[in-house]
Amino acid sequence: MSKDAVRLPGLSAALAGIPAGLQTIGPWSGRRQLFVKFAGEAETATIYSAAALQGELKRLTARSKYHSVAIIGRDALVEAEFLIAVFQQNCPDSQNNQNSQNRPLPVMLDHDGQRPSALEALLPTLSLVQVTLDGREGAASIERTCATIDLAAQAPVDHAVAIMAVSNTSDAPLLRIVEQVHKASAGTQIVVHPPAELAMEHDRRWVLWLEQAMAVHGDVRVLPRWPVAAAWGQDSGTRNARSG
Predict the structure, then answer these.
(1) What pTM value is reported for the model?
(2) Contact 177/163 with Cβ under 8 angstroms?
(3) pLDDT score of 94
């Protein structure tokens, strides 16, 4: 759905769904989540108002147990005002957040880290800010990623960088990302996800690379990438939208 073609009503957004599934990327890998997935250009979308999405999340979490909610999809921070309206009850001074029985699920934002200026107002609603890269980003992109990480660190909100390393990514660019992210925040959780078959075939490579990376930054781990099938949400008939 093109947002240029259709003017949406105020505080509403086009979502590709709210599937349940397993998080496959970053430090919350393996956690059962609800995914608030913003629709891309070619995806079928449903228009949600902020109130409607709040109600749907409340209904879903009343029916089953989840670890957290993940905000994903194309350029989610374009909808920062909408997200603030949806998740305002997650702010630390919210009445709901002060009552342990009604405390809402933690919310993570998984994005490309390219809109640090749009992130700041949303930070009080988040429990984790995750930037996902593939290791081939240019200098300007990494600079914006580091600005995003610095904002999260100053808030402070837990923050992570996940690198979905591709088969032809060499060690040096990955190590440079670790070095630059460390300068932005020594508290960043960095998770590198090589393809599972690559991790097995080049086990020694990753052992040596991790030794180098941990000499620069204390919290780095290597986790082979989940197969796509592992992300299917069995209870909802949908898959983790990250893998779609």
Answers:
(1) 0.86
(2) yes
(3) 57
